[in-house]
Amino acid sequence: MSEATGQVPEGYFVQKTLQTWHQAFENCYDPADYVESKMAIIQIAGNDTEIQDIIENLLSNLEEDHCYHIGVHDLFYEGHYLDIYGREIDYKEWHAGQPDNFGGNENCVAINNKLEMYDVACDSLCYYICMEPIE
Q1: pLDDT in tens, 5-28
Q2: How far is CA 62 from CA 5, 13, 15, 30, in A?
Q3: By CB neighbour count within 10 A (0-12 exposed, 13-18 middle, 19+ buried), where does 83 fall?
Q4: Residue 61 near residue 7 (C-beta atoms within 8 A)
Q5: CATH number at residue 39
Q6: Of residues 79, 80, 82, 124, the one with CA closest to residue 100
Q7: Which residues contact 54 (CB under 8 A, 6 or more apart)?
Q8: pTM of the prediction?
Q9: Does 79 fall in a domain?
Q10: Neighbours of 118 (CB within 10 A)
């Protein structure tokens, strides 16, 4: 059983259990914890202040020096990043020098406490973020 944090935006769950990307994907969907939740996807739509507020709130609850798996990958085609629904991603705030596909096998995406994305090996152990499904 994982430990979810409090004080995160409604609909988001930060799990402070180290998991691989695939374990996080499965654990987010575990109906025993959160009914039909999914791995989090960060979405920014223009000047949407509600989304911006949610992201700023989420940011304030992430710890430094930890990675957080999110529902983004390039498992099917290198450099073509998709969310867990198979859609191209809109949010592309990469950390400097990322993505770099270091070692030729970084096909999953994590964020840091600044909400900067970076590609990681899917078997990297990170905390992870779940969210309620998009309607």
Answers
A1: 444 556 778 888 999 999 999 988
A2: 10, 11, 10, 22
A3: buried
A4: yes
A5: 3.10.100.10
A6: 79
A7: 9, 12
A8: 0.80
A9: yes
A10: 18
